[in-house]
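#lab-general

N.A. 3:47 PM
ok so I finally got the sequence cleaned up, no stray characters, all 124 residues accounted for. can someone with queue access submit it? mine expired

B.Y. 3:52 PM
send it over

N.A. 3:53 PM
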Amino acid sequence: QVQLVESGGGSVQSGGSLRLSCAASGNTYSSYCMGWFRQAPGKEREGVAIINTFGITVYTNSVKDRFTISQDNAKNTLYLQMNSLKPEDTAMYYCAFRSDAYCSLLRLYDYSAWGQGTQVTVSS
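B.Y. 4:20 PM
back already:
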């Protein structure tokens, strides 16, 4: 079992920056994938960025060159640095975990652990 706790959300103006954190605890795995997902009101949850054990990252097109996913294994923490934020980035952001290094932004049902979410609001 893995437990995830997100933090770092907030309200910013368009063009601003935020850094989200996701602290992981529980069982450890030699092979895994972690990611950030978001859900705006009235919309389905979507993948934003993922990173696996090998450090391979994948981003959805709308955040490429603006967001950066990273991990600090010593701290068991996942990060999402968000720059040049836009109003359309407004959503609840969730981190998720899969005990396999092979994963996808699209297959949300593959992830076995989810955090409670942290709200990001970007005003124009």
